[in-house]
Amino acid sequence: MPLHIVLYQPEIPPNTGNIARTCVATDVELHLIHPLGFDISTKTARRAGMDYWEHAVVHEYQSLQELLSAHPLATFYLIETGGNKVHSDADLSDANEDIFFVFGSESKGLPKEFLNAHTDKILTIPMGSKVRSLNLSNTAAILIYEALRQQNYINI
Q1: What CATH number is given to the structural domain containing 120?
Q2: Strand segments (E) across 47-131
């Protein structure tokens, strides 16, 4: 499974559940960075993922550094509303490369020092000025399907 979604300190159970469901549908692994804003076994989180949780490949970490250390050869893209590079301009075509899309918490985003250390890997999705951001689970789906499109859907 060369594509991965990382949720840094997610706060809203339905977002995580919806993302888990999309991950199952697309054979993508889900990585959760603690602390979580909810208990993943709660009814709310499970309801959003419906009965697909048992098929989800979920990894949990205590920090971003633990994640980075566990996958030293992977390519990490940070997804932020203020990024300078449009997501569809990134070359995601190598179906053998481990690609991680890293999303910050719904209310705080990713730590500024982490963003500052990886400015060349920040991607954004274009949107109008009437909203502050897109829904997290929708954004994850956009990134997954853009990568799969570039890879000719070879892994699903």
Answers
A1: 3.40.1280.10
A2: 58-61, 75-79, 85-86, 99-103, 122-124
